[in-house]
Amino acid sequence: MESWILLAMAPVFLGLIAVEAWYWKDRRPVYSLRDTLSNAALALMHQGADAIAWLLVIGLYYAVYQHRLFDLPGSAWTIAGLFVAQDFFYYWFHRAHHRIRWMWASHVTHHSSERLNLSTAFRQSLTYPISGMWLFWLPLAWLGFEPKNIIAVVAINLGFQFFVHTEAVGKLGWIERVFNTPSHHRVHHARNPKYIDRNYAGVLIIWDKLFGSFVEEDPAVPCEYGVVTPIRTHNPITLTFHEWIAMFRDAARPQQSLGSRFKQLFGPPERGHSETPREPRIEFRDPRPALNAGDTDR
């Protein structure tokens, strides 16, 4: 159901991408043809894997639902409660995918572009089911929310997040206090030391403010997008699997204890010692525009 909801919204997404690309055409090289095509390919791969994953795990959701704590009627208040609860669990899903390398191996794909535009929202990995994305929504079924409604709300949450992947929208006044906005999400995609691993919100920014991960966009510190160690490719296969390969290579290095191997897989991403994982935070700044190598269509 999630894939079908997002596919139904595709005409809106594609139309807004076209408008945004036109807006930036004579201003700044925010869009690149190869980068955008790469994003589209990754989206198609992700949607296929996501649909298969839901078919495989939906039975588990209904099994958990049979042992639910509460019988929650299908009302507007129930759906509203589900929306808030799912957004809460999304925050922890997102935070875990930045702080546990096994999960970062999937999520790094989304952060690998050195551009930020609406098409970046499509830049997803087909390996999310392997990294355990579906686990984070299981408590909702145990609480008493029907699985079909959980899937629908997950899709709505992800659909909302499409709109925060843009540089074309500035600050939004009081909305910034409660909701995730383009300004907040620009911080999340930035690799500046001040901004790394901040603003994990899906829809409500209040979780970041409650749990100490919120940072406001600072006009004095322009966002530099991408990962600290750039991935210089537009190949969707490489973008999908490069960190998995690096992670297993690090874990397989000889003369390591079992504990060290475990930490390479499930510790913070910066534990990696190969050339592809994120490096420790550094203060160096490259003054050149943050463009992917090989981008010539400007």
TrEMBL record:
Location (main, coarse): membrane
Basic and acidic residues: bias regions: 270-288
A single BP term in Gene Ontology: membrane lipid metabolic process
InterPro entries: Fatty_acid_hydroxylase, Sterol_desaturase/TMEM195
GO molecular function: glyceryl-ether monooxygenase activity; iron ion binding
Residue ranges of the region described as Disordered: 260-298
Membrane-crossing residue ranges in chain numbering: 6-24, 36-62, 74-93
Top-rank taxon: Bacteria
Membrane topology summary: Multi-pass membrane protein
Cellular compartment(s): Endomembrane system
Limits of the Fatty acid hydroxylase domain: 81-213
Keywords carried by this UniProt record: Lipid metabolism, Membrane, Oxidoreductase, Transmembrane, Transmembrane helix
A GO CC term assigned to this protein in UniProt: endomembrane system
This protein's name: Fatty acid hydroxylase domain-containing protein
Classification lineage: Bacteria, Pseudomonadati, Pseudomonadota, Gammaproteobacteria, Lysobacterales
